[in-house]
Amino acid sequence: MKKSILCIAIASSIALGNAGTSFASNKTTITKATSASISVKLKNDGDDEISVINAGSGGTYRLQKNIVTTIKMDEGDKLYIYEKGKKGALLLVASPEMDGKVQLLSKL
């Protein structure tokens, strides 16, 4: 009886040991998803409110006087002044260096 219990204990420890090594040999690779999304912060430091349009997404934004407005853009997207339903002058082209930094409208 003691021998059979001992044999069962040895067999189960060997089986668990082999199962552990097979799981340890499986490697998991985790990759971080990177996004090209850029948060461009624009401050209208001029005298009047203006509208702008993101040519990449087609979204329009109203930039109020002395207010910082955050616009989500992809790298290479172009932002234009939007007047009377049409694109006007080019303000900027989104780049990673702009991410999270305030851009003064008077400097563009």
Overview of this protein structure:
This protein has 108 residues and is of the alpha+beta class. Helix content is 22%, strand content 37%. It contains one helix and seven strands. The protein has one helix at residues 2-25, and strands at residues 37-43, 50-54, 60-63, 68-74, 78-83, 86-93, 102-104. Strands 3-2-5-6 form a four-stranded antiparallel β-sheet, with no helix packed on it. The chain has a three-stranded mixed β-sheet with strand order 4-1-7, with no helix packed on it. Strand 5 (78-83) and strand 6 form a beta hairpin. The chain is rod-shaped, with a radius of gyration of 30 Å. The model has no long low-confidence stretch (mean pLDDT 83).
Describe the structure concisely for a colleague:
With 108 residues, the protein is α+β, with helices and mostly antiparallel strands. The protein has one helix at residues 2-25, and strands at 37-43, 50-54, 60-63, 68-74, 78-83, 86-93, 102-104.
SSE map:
Layout: H1 2-25, E1 37-43, E2 50-54, E3 60-63, E4 68-74, E5 78-83, E6 86-93, E7 102-104
Parallel strand pairs: 1-7
Antiparallel strand pairs: 1-4, 2-3, 2-5, 5-6
